[in-house]
Design goal:
The structure holds two protein chains of two kinds. Chain A is mainly beta. Chain A has no helices and eleven strands. Chain B is mainly beta. Chain B contains no helices and eleven strands. The chains are: A mainly beta, B mainly beta. The interface between A and B is medium-sized, with 26 and 27 residues.
C-alpha cells in the first residue's frame, strides 16, 4: 500500500531556513500536499504541487518535487517562531489522502 | 473565510458506549470525509461520502462505524460500542468536488477518549 515517510523532528533558529523532507511510494500520486498543524488545531493546508511540476514557490514557502526519487520537500525561508508546528506531507490516490507521520518543527528564538 | 467546524472538541466515553461526532462542512462543498489520528501516529483515512452515500472507505471503517448526513448542513460519524483503541483525534474534511485535484479542508478535530 501507499506509504509516506517523514523525519520526526527539526529544530532551527529564528531567521534560518527550514527544510522538511518527505518520501512516498505511490508513483501514481498526482497531487502532493503540505499541511500545518498547530497545537490543539486542525490541519491547515499550506500548499500543494501537481506531479508534473518540479517546484512551486509561494511567498516564504518553496516546494520541490523529485518524482523520480519520490521525494518532496518544503523549504520555509526566514523561519519565525510562529512557524513552530507539525508539518504533514500527504499524497492523494483518488479521494483518499495518505499522510506522513508529521515533522515537528521547533523554532528557537 | 468559510471553515469546517466540529463538535464536540473533546469527548470522553466509557468502553462499549456509542458516540456521535458531528461536523459542519463548508456550505457549497459536496464531498465529505472522516480521518482519525491515534496519538503519535499518522492521520488515517476512514471514509468519503458523496450524494448521501459512502464513496470509499478504508479497512478501518468496519461495521462499528457509520456516517450520515442527517440534514443539509451536518455530517456525522457514529461509533458503536466504542473500544479503548478508538481513542484518537477524529478529523472531518470537505471538498467542493471529488477527484485528485480537489483540496480537502479540515476541521479542528474531535479528541475522543475511551475509558
Amino acid at each position: 500500500g501507499e506509504d509516506v515517510e517523514q523525519s520526526l523532528f527539526l529544530s532551527v533558529r529564528e531567521g534560518d531556513s527550514s527544510v522538511i523532507n518527505c518520501t512516498y511510494t505511490d508513483s501514481s500520486s498526482t497531487y502532493l500536499y503540505w499541511y500545518k498543524q498547530e497545537p490543539g488545531a486542525g490541519l491547515q493546508l499550506l500548499t500543494y504541487i501537481f506531479s508534473n511540476m518540479d517546484m512551486k514557490q509561494d511567498q516564504r514557502l518553496t516546494v520541490l518535487l523529485n518524482k523520480k526519487d519520490k521525494h518532496l520537500s518544503l523549504r520555509i525561508a526566514d523561519t519565525q517562531t510562529g512557524d513552530s508546528a507539525i508539518y504533514f506531507c500527504a499524497e492523494t490516490n483518488f479521494n483518499k489522502f495518505y499522510f506522513g507521520s508529521g515533522t515537528k518543527l521547533n523554532v528557537k528564538p | 473565510e468559510p471553515e469546517v467546524t466540529q463538535t464536540p472538541s473533546h469527548q470522553v466515553t466509557q468502553m462499549g458506549q456509542e458516540v456521535i461526532l458531528r461536523c459542519v462542512p463548508i456550505s457549497n462543498h459536496l464531498y465529505f470525509y472522516w480521518y482519525r489520528q491515534i496519538l503519535g501516529q499518522k492521520v488515517e483515512f476512514l471514509v468519503s461520502f458523496y450524494n448521501n452515500e459512502i464513496s470509499e472507505k478504508s479497512e478501518i471503517f468496519d461495521d462499528q462505524f457509520s456516517v450520515e448526513r442527517p440534514d443539509g448542513s451536518n455530517f456525522t460519524l457514529k461509533i458503536r460500542s466504542t473500544k479503548l483503541e478508538d481513542s484518537a483525534m477524529y478529523f472531518c474534511a470537505s471538498s467542493e468536488w471529488g477527484g485528485l485535484q480537489e483540496t480537502q479542508y479540515f476541521g479542528p478535530g474531535t479528541r475522543l477518549l475511551v475509558l
